[in-house]
From TrEMBL:
GO biological process: GPI anchor biosynthetic process
GO cellular component term of the entry, any: membrane
Alphabetic keyword roster: Membrane, Transmembrane, Transmembrane helix
Upper taxonomic lineage: Eukaryota, Metazoa, Ecdysozoa, Nematoda, Chromadorea
Protein name: Phosphatidylinositol N-acetylglucosaminyltransferase subunit Q
Amino acid sequence: MGTLPQCLAWSALYAELSFKLGNLCRLSYLVFDSLFGLVVLGLAMARWTDIFVRFWTAVHLYIKQLETLITWLTNNPAGLKLNDALNTFLSNFFFYHIHIWRTYVTFFEHSWTKWLLIASGALGLSVLVAFLSDFLRVLTVHIFCFHIYTQKLAKVCWAAFLGVSRAFRSKKWNPLRERVDSVKLDSRQLFITTLAMIILLFLMPTICVYFGVFSTLWLSVDGACRLLRRAARMIRQTLAHNWDSND
């Protein structure tokens, strides 16, 4: 995920708390933001049990649907002829990580998340929405990991394919001069290069399918987190602007 400063830069909660700490003198804004947060919390607490059950049911359903999706990928969907060995390896790899993810999710199903939610709401509506953004991002960190795994695999495969395709055309990349030079291959080297290029060519569709699926899932989750973060920023800016106008 990166270093601590990079992680904090991704955190909507950190941004909202930093703004509040930097504006402690704006008492009216802080009070109104906290009041709005407590009102929303009060409305939610009236049906907390129902919301809690529905939310975690949806999370587990999402995980179950992801397992179904991977199972569907192993059956050559839409007529795609995926590589069986690589497909089996990737599906087993992701099934194992989904099992870890399910265990990871159960850690958040305890009552301490409720108290964190109450604390964030007491600090303000903008902090509450920012907390939801960060909570969703932390809860779905495995989707981000799946995206990174497949992205790295796709990059390595593509770089290797470019390298062997250059060698097949009697070319090679010269990193010292940063240019493509000519190279002479004997029959054995040409055979190995051709074989490697064919293998990579047949592996790439499978890798691209997994990369496309998990990138789409990550973009949807990231989009939801960004939307919540933007909502928190808009709430903060609206309340702060109204406070400045009244002042």
